[in-house]
Amino acid sequence: MPALHVAASVPTTVAPLSLLLSPLSSGSHIFSAPQPSSPLVNASSISLGGNLTVVDLPGITRVPVHGEPENIYVQIKDIIMEYIRPEESIILNVLSAIVDFTTCESIRMSQSVDKTGLRTLAVVTKADKSPEGLLEKVTADDVNIGLGYVREAFPNDSDDIVSAFEGNSNLFWVERFGKQFLGMNDLWVKHCGISHIGSFKDLGMTVLVSQVNRLRKMNRPVVGVGCASIGDTSTALSAYYASAGIPSIVFLPANRISIAQLVQPIANGAFVLSIDTDFDGCMQLIREVMAELPIYLANSLNSLRLEGQKTAAIEILQQFDWQVPDWVIVPGGNLGNIYAFYKGFHICKELGLVDKIPRLVCAQAANANPLYLYFKSGWKDFKAVKANTTFASAIQTGDPVSIDRAVYALKNSNGIVEEATEEELMDAMAQADSTGMFICPYTGVALTVLFKLRNSGVIKPTDRTVVVSTAHRLKFTQSKIDYHSKDIKEMACRYANPPVQVKADFGSVMDVLKKYLLSKAPKH
Fold first, then answer.
1. What's the CATH architecture for 202-304?
2. How far apart are CA 273 and CA 493, in angstroms?
3. What is the rounded distance in angstroms from the CA atom of residue 214 to the CA atom of residue 203?
């Protein structure tokens, strides 16, 4: 299907992939019938023939459903009416023409997410379980629900788009590391942190800020945008909203993020609140504040973020020429990203671009591991935990808001959850760096998990495996300095490579160099 290839379908100057693959950010609609101005409770519909009906809700992407629209509408209208004003923009996206259990499960998840009062509705997607597949089942107009992600569903007015041309990040073959440490020939790292602000979160923030930019131009009641953050959500938020001239507000836990991450929102002019609590405490506070003030939430609980982040999965498939990897390992804290990857892979399967999805692995720090504990219980007993300090600070979350989404993604991808201790993640980071990489602590968590799954035989030597690197390594130089200085309490730092102190004379330098070169000489 060459028409589905983004590079072939859309001029690269129009919008980034994260926007082009999102059904969200404009007044443009999938179908051409006029949008009604009636209140939300009086939603109208148009028939496409047979049992296919298109529900037309004000401000909502039109949704093809099977039979009468009330069946799906009744399930969602109460949470919409309670928490979202009728004139505000909402996104509801059902990819196929049949509402089945998968759709209902997604709706149940969105209800659980949205009962907090956040002014958004989680995007509802469906998995088409029919053997004949999505594109053989729908009408010609309905195909635009799928193809529109690439060709039509972006703002009519390009001035609404706020982008730093994110995406298209490097998929790096880590040949030496894979062979030397893991006995693998087909190991790859997806460097999502090589981006404008140095994080994968650029992908989601361009989508969200473009939508907010459009809403403000329409004089909708959005005064500012806020987030709770322990790292790169705040950096992406502040940079993109500064670019659009929209006030941004950041709730940060005091003394819990790196200076490199903290300086970015400050430099970009965000209003930064340093609060004496952890991330979960900041998240609770911003929810309470949003109930009183016209602030729009920018955390991954907002489904617009995930619409952008899912494009990293689609990029992986494109970069492999639509060959599906066996495994994709994603660091997880607040857990929106593991669901976004699942969604990206799943959409490509629905569209017939691939015939399967990879097995997903969520990698957690042992100091903040509620999903891992839930997984080990057989999905029977979820309990939030008190997150302890970890070098992987951005995934230091004890009560993740996207827990339901993450579980859904893992169950539907035959996924696994594993954890990494502080010493394990720092050792893995040092081992990777010694082979030419220079990675962040979150990638260290993911690589530790890979070590464990290889050692247990779950991942085979020939399995094509992708490790997702979520942040730019230069934000974490202090932790690397401390490791190689062996200055981390109760950590052996087994792979430390400290500088050698040498006297300033020729003989001393020669002695040291000879000893070093002798240790590196090939053994025969």
1. 3-Layer(aba) Sandwich (3.40)
2. 35
3. 18
